[in-house]
Structures
1.
Amino acid sequence: MRVTFCTDLDKNVVVANCEKRGWIQVGPEDDWNIYWAGTLTCRSLFSVDSGYRMNDNQIINHFPNHYEISRKDLLVKNIKRYRRDLEKEGNVLAERGDSKYLHLDFIPVTFVLPADYNMFVEEYRKAPQSTWIMKPCGRSQGSGIFLINKLSKLKRWSREANKNPLQPQLAKESYVISRYIDNPLLIGGKKFDLRLYVLVTSFRPLKAYQFRLGFCRFCTVKYDSSVAELDNMYVHLTNVSVQKHGEEYNALHGGKLSVQNLRLHLESTRGKEVTERLFDQISWLIIHSLKAVQPVIATDRHCFECYGYDIIIDNKLKPWLIEVNASPSLTSTTANDRILKHKLLDNIFNIVVPPSGYPDVRWNKIVSTEALGDFELLIDEDILNHGNHDDTASLDRHSNRSANFYRWK
């Protein structure tokens, strides 16, 4: 059957993957089966005003309100609500010790400004001179981020934002302010974070897969936590969009290291057991960040989504969730990047399109091991809810991550 695709992103990786399958590119006004869209396009398509209704043979790469996890303020709000709800239920996952969550402590202490200003000040005064990082809620690629270690600096920024007639949006824009992870794990003296890809094919029931081939993004300048370097974003921000302008940027490797090589480095320096524990904790935080937004995401059987997770590891090998991107960059900065992103798209299409090769939302979304490629199952609530995990065949079809989740649940 003829399969048509549509995209509003000028990315060769999308078009090349679709054309390789023999799919035919059409415009948004034509009859399309698969739409790889930007977030704004998706929002307008799902808006009440558009009146657009998808048929059973159409799928799109975003959920209607994907921003519940990708907007920095909403992610924090949803995780905090998730913890409170579990606490009310008396769930063991919400256990506390020394006022911290023992199992759900995977985001830094964070407040939304200006709404939470008084709560932030109260927290700040417990440890004056501590470093905090300010991020605008609705922006990406490191735009508008800065660090503070004095309350006076925040007050000065607030006054300037309110009186600047050229940028009135600064006064209205909400920010998140988070305790800065000032003890990051360093390799070669440099700070880095992890970019991991997570594919969600359904939120209710939750079905999610993690891509094995993520990468680390490094700063170009050696880490220095001194006050003198507080404004040097080449020391503190790992975003490629920031680092590529630095004098030390190496275009050959793009300041990137594969997750496989990170794993090998950690196994040789810290040991295999603690490395395995770290990666299990990363899977744990991804699962629970998804469960935190599960009640509020408008799940739709026409939708799937590939999220870009940004995670920082501290020097005690504890992972911290920094943010989640609804449109992780498909731009290739190196040859390895291009290979990884082509494989990512190819594997995604293998999972979201039924074995027949023709999109159909009535499909039960049971994916064969062969179709997973470099993805591994993170969680499938269908298996959990129906007790099928005792069935050997089911476990053979799915990843060990599910077995881990039975323990975590």
Note: The mean pLDDT is 86.
2.
Amino acid sequence: MKEGKRSKRDKEAKGDRDTEKKKRRKEEAEEQGPAAATGRSYTVSIAVAASCIENAQNLELATLLAGQVARAAAIFNVDEVVVLDDAPGKQEGRVSAAAALFARVLQFMETPQYLKKALIPMHPDLKYAGVLPPLDAPHHLRSSEWGPYREGVVKRSVKGQGSWLDVGLDRDAHVPQAVKQGVRLTLAMGERPSTATVQGQEVLQAQLALPTDPREKAGLYWGYITRIAPSLAAMAEQCPFPGGYDLVVGTSERGERTPACQLDLGPFRHALVVFGGPQGLEYALLNDELATQHSEPSGMFHRYLNTCFDQGSRTIRSEEAILISLAFLQPAIGTAQRQRQQQDGVAR
């Protein structure tokens, strides 16, 4: 009998705690405003050395490795993947074969399935790309799905009449602007379909949107940008986001061993997490112009972390390191954004 009463009291106490948690979450959301509740203004990028692809035994395994990196990026909402071309002796203005293969597979994986034929030309590097598991990201909408945003490719345009786009549905979408044929665009489609007849064709009405709108306005993960960096300096300096990276994290078995629960990254807007190849970031620095300024890699980063200490294997492969590190950093990234939102609230 006493045990039953104790169990009832425990349930009531748990219910009170749950109610209090919900109340706190509601108050936090109200303090941060609608944008904080729905949109995401910060970005997370990763840079991966192309030497991890070069180390693969054949094209099929290299493709699989690149596909695993793409999957990890999508799982952890990564907004940009930088292929760091760390091959020695590259010609000026040229990229290594490994970096080119890596970038092609990443772009193939990120492109919505209904746009691949129009946007991704056939290439020997993509021989095995068709068997990779799909990203299944929010912007890879199926023909039976509707969303407020959608990716499309311009099929034709007429000056003064606008553009018709393939958006993977039974009707083309139409925007009032005339845009060059073959261009990929992000479209705002509305909460529900709205049709019109333009030049005798029934179309879905849409508006042009910025590629960042789904993330910043609706909080949707909308894929990643792919770029190739010919050097460590270019990796950081050619940031596509306003203001550049204000947090750059290097990963290495020689980095600091701070437990994930104690890690404090500080508030940031654009973060870059850098992964070396089989020989680490030391190899990338050895073949880089920054070698004259830094004797070892840690000095190039705001933080230099070991994200998997006490490992059982002598080695951690690059594709494994990315999954481990992004999972390790998740709590600290969440804390950093709460700190930044609080700072922004005080500033306003």
Note: The chain has two domains: 43-137+223-347, 149-216.
3.
Amino acid sequence: MGNLHGLHRSHHAGETSNAHFPPSLAPPSSSSPSRPHMTTVEPYCHVDSSLRSLAGKAEGFGRAAVGGLSGPICRVTSLADEGPGSLREACKRPDPLWIVFDVSGTINLSSFVNVSSHKTVDGRGQRVKITGKGLRLKQCENVIICNLEFEGGVGPDADAIQIKPKSSNIWIDRCSLKNYHDGLIDITRESTDITVSRCHFMNHNKTMLIGADESHVTDRCIRVTIHHCFFDGTRQRHPRVRFAKIHLYNNYTRHWAIYAVGAGVESQIYSQCNIYEAGEKKTVFKYITEKAGDKEKPEAGFIRSEGDWLLNGAKSCLSHNGERHVFSPTQHYSEWTVESPTEKLKNFMKHSTGWQNLPLPPDQTTSTA
């Protein structure tokens, strides 16, 4: 499941002493030059070797997501909003399916497509763009969505990918997302054990919300891993969190317009070896004070920053008082692919996130739905 470099063994938040890192992986300071001798470690090197190699390979909290591993291949043959051969028709079927596309182009949705449990929506081999509305993961489990584009969602509730309520074991990988009226990815209402990886976010305001609002105290169960994502000039919410436990690592966030990461009520954010490159606005971590629905006093969340690289005058604005309240990923999983943030990692993120022009890998089975 990728390469484990031992960085997770450090329990000293925000500390950049090389004593807590292998010598080749010591985090750079905000003023240190790039080190071209360091190599970039690509996560998920083998998931494209065969069609179903994605199943169960997510790092982090979404690692149990197997999608439609046990089901036959289902082919989307139409770009229509609905009807035979459409994406909507495939996603609503109750049985496990590995959904692939025989067509490239734009699917203009008039309403959310509800993705049922045990589905893989696999965009490899084609270039498929979803617009109008997005995908909704509602009370489902074991879903993988990969290699799709989302652009131009319309309406006050238009999210590209909406995960609510009570959905679990989800992996969103290698998608390009931009310009929806509401969020790009929203994770709320007790949805948990989710990984978002290798995605490219751009041209958007409220990028990613995790945790519905301060009244939804049952969102304390939410756990999300976000890694190797490129937040490319999006304004805020990378992510914005309430109640949840969030592990961020090896993401590249640049030129935000308000703040990079927002820690609302009771949230626990473990930010590890990310690159934060400021534009005009410099605040990386913003603490947002709110009152939980079952508490008397308002409070913000908690953040631990470890090995993060702050560029172009970015200011962490960390409060160190609450670092001891932040969870350790090792309490939940033992392996993840992480490396020190460098110029090489930054360039990797620019070119290797979002939709990729990949062939559809061969399947070892021949069954087709």
Note: DSSP finds two helices and 27 strands in the chain.
4.
Amino acid sequence: MAKRQLLMLGIRASFHTLAAVLVAGVIFTAMFLSRNGMPKENPQSDGDSNVEEGEGSDRECNLFEGKWVFDNKSNPIYREEECKFMSDQLACGKFGRKDSSYKFWRWQPHKCDLPRFNGTKLLERLRNKRMVYVGDSLNRGQWVSMVCMASSVITNPKMMYFHSNGSNLITFKSLEYNATIDFYWAPLMVESNSDDPTNHRLPERIVRVQSIEKHARQWTQSDIIVLNSYLWWLRPHMKTLWGSFEKLDGIYKEVEMVRVYEMALQTMSQWLEVHVNSNLTKLFFMSMSPTHERAEEWGGKTNQSCYGETSLIDKEGYHGKGSDPKMMRVVENVLDELKRRGLNMQMINITQLSEYRKDGHPSIYRKQWEPLKESQVLDPSSYSDCIHWCLPGVPDVWNQLLYAYIVDDHHTT
């Protein structure tokens, strides 16, 4: 009898053990299928996701690859005539441009969405901080764009401060947030004979390629630094000075432009490595802003420019001669080396997306600083500005890209 009871107990124990194993197996199989065997919901808008388990979606979200989409519901973010900081160099509507479609194009990345700009969120992120744009007139135009975008949410004019006394530095401040957005004129980044913000158009351009302290000490201690330097380098050679402009014993030498450009960027990177705390300061470098001065490059007439252009270039991957790939590679190499030394500077690649926008330049619709000659009046292409950009317009998208990194915490892996 005792043996029979022990046998029954053993059978019951074996049964419970087997049942437990079967239940565990069912649960494990269900979990495995739910994670690996079943279709996964894809958060990306185009339904094509290659993100592996454990990786962030930013890996496949390249904000710089996409297309322009006409959107007259959410654009423009601000009105030209309502921005108190608008520049006459960029106010195309004020100076007679009748077509307005250039204001309504939205950049749409292929595999994600560009975050919608929110001026209040930007100012909150900049509370008690300083953001500074450093560079040439293209960077100044981007600064105007950012100030117009940010100030559009400030309803009380007394809560804004603006200061420009003819120096290299222009300041905008939101008093409520104690948030400062500055622009500093340094068209070649390093010291040059073109550093005067007004009188800088000289017949011969000279750079002190190893000297940046005069400029950099004005903006190094900022929380966000946005640099650019490209347009002023566009000549075959640059005259380079080793020495001082004030003394006569300096050494001058003509050097190939790309080499001098590389030396200037290396001077910049060395300064930043020593003087910037990467835990406190975010660094950005704006890539080349392309020009549209030769209509034949996109199938237009010879000897014509961006004048009269109201449509986009629809050839994907289009590149004109207004941007130099060799200079882009120099920037990438210098920033890669800087990152290996422990300081990350994010390049905001505006080049390709701006290449498509032959419609976005002021052309003749801007203030003319000098009286036009009769020959120019008869040939508008001869004095059209196909370098800068109308506002609202393309630079607003550049700032939306910046916004994605500053406010929305986008990152590139």
Note: Residues 58-406 form one domain.
